[in-house]
C-alpha cells in the first residue's frame, strides 16, 4: 500500500545519508489500482508539500502519464482528478525502493515497505 | 502480570497470536477508540481542513480506523509485522510502514499536519542490545528529532503512554524538549486508578494563542458502564410473577446444588425436607 502520496514524502534515513537521498527509486514493482474517495480540498491543501518533479517522474515510471511536467497555474477539476488518481489510487504492492545516494534498498512486501535499518546504519 | 514491554521487544511480543488477541478484544477496541478520540481532541486540528496525519505505532489499525471514519488521510508505522498483517486484513485506508521508531523517520520536512500515538512510546524505554544506538535516551532523541522535522510548523503531536515511574516521564519530556518541541504532560482523571490516562502533548513552532497546554479532564469518569457480558447473572436474578426480585440462592437453587453434590458422590449432604432453604425466624 505504498501510494505515491507517501512515496513523495519518503527520503532515506540511513546514517550520514543526508543529501541527494530523495526520491527513492522504484524497482521491479507490481502495482494495483484501488478506488479512493475524491477529496479536492485535501488535494489543494496538500499541493504545497509535494515535490512536483519527483511525483511526475514516479508516476511515469509506474506507467501513468496523465500529469503535466510543469505544475499548472490553474487547478481545474480534470487536473485534480488526475492528481487524485496518481496520489491516492495507485498502490505499489511488491518491489523495492532504492536510495539514489547510498543505494540502500527498502523492500516492499505485501504493500508494506520494510524501513528497518541494520545496526551500523542507525544515525 | 508484568508489563508487556518488560517481557519481550514489541515485534516479538506482538506475534501472530498476540496480535489477533489484541485486536479482537472488545475492551481493547473500546479503550483504543476512546483514547484516539481524546488524542484527536488534544491535537486541536483546524475543523474543516482535511489533514494528513502520522499514526506512530499504528499496530493493527484500531486507531487508524477511527482516523478513516473522521475523514483524515494518514500513514502508519509499526515494528510488529504480525500487527501490520492484521491491519492489512482489516483493510484500513492508510499507508503502512514496517519501521522502528527508535531508528528515526525518513520523512521529508513538514510532511505531516499532526501525529498521534496510542500506548506506544513506553516501548522505547528498554534497551534490547548493548549497542550504543539502542540505549533509550539515544533512541528517544533520534525519534523526537526526526519527528520534529517531519511535522509541519505549527502543528502538534499527541502521545498517550503508560510510564511506570516519574523518571520515565522526566526522560521522555527532556528528550522531547531537546529535540525542539514545546508542550508537556496532560493527565486525564488524575485521581482515578483505572481511568487515569497520561498524554504527552507536544507543539512544533512556538507560542501562538492556541498553542497553550490543554487541561486534563477532571472528576470521575462518566458513569461506570459495568461489566457488559454478565447476562447470565441478570437472568438468574430476574423477577418472579408477582414482581418481586428472586433471591439467587432460593430453595430451587439449594435443591439443585444438593442434587449435584449427591451425584458427584459427596458425603454428608443434608437431607431435603420442608425446612430446606427456609429462613430461621427471630424467636424473641
TrEMBL record, chain A:
Pfam families found in the cross-reference section: Trm112p (PF03966)
Subunit structure: Interacts with TRM9.
Classification via InterPro entries: Trm112, Trm112-like
GO molecular-function terms, A-Z: protein heterodimerization activity
Superkingdom of the source species: Eukaryota
Family recorded in the similarity comment: Belongs to the TRM112 family.
PANTHER family in the cross-refs: MULTIFUNCTIONAL METHYLTRANSFERASE SUBUNIT TRM112-LIKE PROTEIN, UPF0315 PROTEIN-RELATED
Protein name: Multifunctional methyltransferase subunit trm112
GO biological process: rRNA (guanine-N7)-methylation; tRNA methylation
TrEMBL record, chain B:
Official protein name in the record: 18S rRNA (Guanine-N(7))-methyltransferase
Domain Methyltransferase type: from-to ranges: 54-127
Organism superkingdom: Eukaryota
Keyword Aminoacyl-tRNA synthetase listed: no
Subcellular compartments: Cytoplasm; Nucleus
GO terms of biological process kind: rRNA (guanine-N7)-methylation
Record-level Gene Ontology MF annotations: rRNA (guanine) methyltransferase activity
Domain 18S rRNA (guanine(1575)-N(7))-methyltransferase Bud23 C-terminal as annotated: residue spans: 202-281
